[in-house]
DNA sequence: CCTCTGCAAATTGTCGACACTCGACACAGG
DNA sequence: CCTGTGTCGAGTGTCGACAATTTGCAGAGG
């Protein structure tokens, strides 16, 4: 059958692709889930995945376990794995934690930031402004994410970095198109500019405060429109469908979207 | 000989123990590592573990993968899994993150705390005071952990709770006996009392601030005694065992699989 | 005496197969 | 007509075995 449906993994860490099989499966599924090609509620059958990917159930199982440990899928001891869905409440929770984490990151990073890094931050903000003007939401989000990740990365705290990565990974699936889309992009750029100003001034506390407020904005929006599934992309309701909706065949779209730092 | 080397899993979730095999292995190894019976650096051979536990390599492998996802062990793609060690720097990092998390938890929890929960906090503090007087460090730590976990739990933020649990799990192995041991216990109780006072007063901000300072105390100590391995590794428990740096077998059962499970 | 290279052992990565459990459907009874 | 129960099917959980790769050692060469 269709074997080796893998796309290439753009990971230029310097090491060549010496990844084991289950690692590749893990990355593949991770990408698929984060890209929302496997919407929440999708049942991931081991045999189906195995056949689809051209490997045996071993690596698939291992990758699924890893995915479950990351919280991207949920396994019920005997009933297989489903792509986990975040409720609006959990999404708000994640925002709260993210605020705490990035606030800490800002406090730690500001005294450590090298001039070159500040310039990179500036470049990200400028790109955001440009993308906002263009209306290129995808690119805007990328630059936005790069901005935040650079701050977290510059904190020098790898534990913090890891937790933040995990958190953003969970939240990343829910592009809040209808939410932040409208006029908030420019506002976000303005907030980033203010944060960057505080960073340049070396005022870690102010930068952290501004960053906290900045993150709290979508959080507020969520609270206002609570319980409504404003954000969730694909519906997973109708739990009593006549038949299961499998995804036995998943195709590699070839979108080499590197999530790497 | 009953070769099932599993100990009791103190987990009374109310549901009966329908755990799968790899889950039991996972819990077992987790307990062993957290109890420092498997010190950092120990190489965990799959076959050795499998034979020792009376299962095949499958569940062992799965459990090891899960453990690696939690950060308790580190696997090198072809060279097996070792119990991961936290450097002093990582330990300090974890404290920073923990401070941010628990501070957030306090802010969220204070307005939500039911009177009964406040009383439970009080009970924990009282028990800590008693244990500190007795010099019962183990019990003291338990009550201490219960205090902090209750605050985190009362925040109502399950994401936060999960991250905190994970973090504490990583840090839990390093009982800082020689550090916090001496006169710091009573001081810790005093700080907890102050926090509890702020909680009773409904002053979330003050409680959060005090909690942050409280957590920052061991952090400061670590910075002072930086680079020294003051804390790391376990105390001298079980010195009667032969020296083992690389011990693949953790149980010398020798008996073949006897009773059916 | 030191170093490089080839072989061998050991251990992990992967695979296919079997048993057991859970879910669903159909049939019989009230 | 509704409900309880028995059976069938699907799918996971687990096991044993094979193969690839890495590590260590031994021997030869410089």
Describe the structure.
Two copies of one chain form a homodimer. Chain A is mostly helical and 261 residues long. The first copy, chain A, is built from ten helices and three strands. In chain A, strands 1-3-2 form a three-stranded antiparallel beta sheet. In chain A, α5 (115-134) packs antiparallel against α6. Chain A is elongated. The first copy, chain A, starts with 20 loop residues before the first helix and ends in a 37-residue tail after the last helix. The relative contact order of chain A is 0.17. Chains A and B meet through α3, α4 and α7 of A and α3, α4 and α7 of B. Chain B binds a DNA duplex (30 and 30 nucleotides) through residues 20-22, 45-47, 55-59, 61-62, 77-80.
> In sequence order, what are the helices and strands of chain A, one letter per element?
HEHHEEHHHHHHH
Query: How would you name the oligomeric state of the polypeptide chains in this document?
Result: homodimer
Please give the number of β-strands of chain A.
3
Classification by helices and strands of chain A: mainly alpha
Helicity of chain A, as a percent range: 55-70%
**Alpha-carbon distance between the termini of chain A?**
35 Å
Output the strand order for the largest sheet of chain A: 1-3-2
Question: What key attributes describe this structure?
Answer:
homodimer; mainly alpha; 10 helices; disordered N terminus; disordered C terminus; DNA-binding
């Amino acid at each position: 059958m269709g074997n080796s449906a893998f796309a290439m993994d753009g990971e230029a860490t310097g090491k060549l692709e010496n990844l084991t099989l289950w690692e590749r499966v893990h990355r593949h599924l991770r990408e698929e889930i984060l890209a929302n090609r496997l919407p929440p509620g999708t049942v991931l059958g081991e045999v189906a995945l195995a056949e689809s990917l051209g490997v045996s159930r071993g690596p698939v199982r291992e990758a699924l376990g890893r995915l479950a440990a990351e919280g991207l899928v949920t396994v019920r001891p005997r009933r297989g794995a489903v792509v986990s869905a975040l409720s609006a409440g959990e999404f708000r929770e994640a925002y709260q934690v993210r605020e705490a984490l990035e606030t800490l990151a800002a406090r730690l990073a500001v005294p450590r930031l090298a001039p070159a890094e500040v310039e990179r931050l500036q470049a990200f903000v400028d790109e955001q402004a440009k993308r906002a003007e263009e209306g290129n939401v995808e690119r805007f989000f990328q630059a936005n994410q790069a901005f935040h990740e650079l701050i977290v990365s510059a904190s020098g705290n790898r534990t913090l970095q890891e937790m933040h990565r995990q958190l953003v990974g969970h939240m990343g699936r829910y592009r809040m198109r209808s939410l932040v889309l409208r006029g908030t992009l420019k506002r976000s750029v303005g907030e980033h500019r203010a944060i960057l100003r505080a960073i340049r001034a070396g005022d870690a506390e102010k930068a952290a405060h501004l960053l906290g407020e900045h993150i709290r904005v979508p959080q507020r929006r969520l609270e206002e429109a609570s319980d409504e599934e404003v954000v969730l992309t694909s519906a997973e309701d109708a739990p009593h469908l006549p038949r299961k909706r499998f995804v036995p065949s998943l195709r590699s779209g070839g979108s080499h979207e590197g999530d790497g730092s």
